[in-house]
Amino acid sequence: MNAEARTNASTGTRVPGGERGRISPLGDRLRQETTAVRSTTRAVGEITTPRALMVLDLTSDDAEIVGVDFIGYVYRWDRLLGQPLSDPVQVHPRTVYAMLLTPDDHEIVIGGGDGVLRRWDRVNGTPVGEPLTGHRSRIRGLAVTRDGQELVSASQDGTARRWNRTAGLSLGNSLVGHAGTVRAVALAAEEDIIVTAGQDGTVRRWNRWDGVPIGEPILGHSGPIQALAASPDGRVVASGGRDGTVRRWDLGSGRPLGAPLVLDSSVWSVLLTSDGEVAAGSAHGLLHRWDRTGQRIGAAVAAHKWGVPSLAVTRDETELVTCGWDKTIRRWARVTGEPTRSARKETRIDLVPRLEITGTTPF
User: Fold this and answer.
1) Is 352 exposed, middle or buried (0-12, 13-18, 19+ CB in 10 A)?
2) Which of 6, 157, 282, 340 shows a CA-CA span of 20 to 30 A to 113?
3) Nearest residue to 165 via CA among 94, 104, 212
4) Sheet holding 193-198, edge to edge
């Protein structure tokens, strides 16, 4: 089978590299001839990837970008130079939908299409410990505690699970409540609360320690939720849906914060920064940004030709990193601009419309 155009036998979905008009593993019909866009804002740097990535992450010192593609190969790049740091390593035999780095950067944790969690040494590319089994279907989302000891996984089997990472053991009962796939998971409120989002269009909160649901399901999206992010202070959660909106929720009350933030197409990725900014990537390859009051930060940027399945921010929050299904990674500088409203409002932050070069670089 052509690896660049693999079809999942159970769902009939197509992954990057096939013909036009295919359906993605994220569930959105993509027509490349109608969604291709030209970038109007230059990124700080760009890396060409061998295949389209599904997920990317940054090491804790921001020196390294780690990414996983749709057939389970992991790649490592020097973030500033854009140079590969090792040969690609296939870490999973089936499609990968979820990946993260442990807080100490030692391990890459992968969740795949077979419902199995696997751990790999980031530097030498060798497996660590035994696979973690228990899910009956694809793993769609992952979260990890700050001490790196506990993982939380979200699965297409309709459950979320907690794991002791090093012991390889399941913790407590599965979190059951969503009708259908659990597509995303996050930890919030000092990591005492697990937040999940699903195919049923709901956001749900769970007590991490006993697995008991907190409050009623949070409703607002008109379709499946595909992305979820918690604010650094753990009090706000943002959900991105196939309905083309990002919605912010007060974690304690479950109430919406402001009006829905509207994108050009289905939301594939979302993050929150400590100053309240919301950044989201769309199925059509655009990067959208809003400040904490819900006002847009400039126009949507044509970050990629199509599909932004993952984005990250450096620890000092000066730079966004995006990956696209056009086989590129791009870096975007966040720069504080002149206030566009009264001093009572938040300062506007814009993407930098220039190329920044520091030291030796191939860009």
Assistant:
1) middle
2) 282
3) 104
4) 182-188, 193-198, 203-207, 213-218
Radius of gyration of the chain (CA): 19
Whether the CB-CB separation of 68 and 54 falls below 8 Å is answered with: yes
Distance of CA 269 to the CA centre of its chain: 5
Distances in whole angstroms, Cα of residue 94 to Cα of each of 73, 87, 104, 112, 115: 10, 19, 26, 6, 10
What does the alpha-carbon distance between residue 273 and residue 230 come to, in Å, rounded to a whole number? 9
CA angle, 140 then 4 then 39, to 5°: 80
d(CA 186, CA 271): 11
d(CA 190, CA 187): 8
Sign of the Cα pseudo-torsion (125, 127, 129, 130, in order): positive
Q: For position 43, what pLDDT does the model report?
A: 60
C-alpha neighbours within 13 Å on the C-beta side of residue 54: 26
User: Burial of 171 by CB count in 10 Å (0-12 exposed, 13-18 middle, 19+ buried)?
Assistant: middle
Query: Which structure tokens are listed for 168?
Result: 């390889």
Chain centroid to Cα 178, Å, comes to: 20
At 347, which amino acid appears? Answer: T
Q: Mean pLDDT per segment of 10 residues, for the chain of length 363 residues?
A: 31 36 35 30 78 97 97 96 96 90 97 94 95 96 97 98 94 96 96 97 97 97 98 97 98 97 98 97 97 95 95 96 97 62 34 34 30
Three-state SS string over 229-250 comes to EECCCCCEEEEEECCCEEEEEE
Half-sphere exposure for 283 (CA within 13 Å, toward CB): 24
Question: What is the token pair recorded at 339?
Answer: 């206030």
Distance from C-alpha of 13 to C-alpha of 73, rounded to nearest angstrom: 19
Output the pLDDT for position 62.
98
Structure tokens at 258: 């402001």
d(CA 291, CA 286): 17
Distance CA 69, CA 75 (A): 8
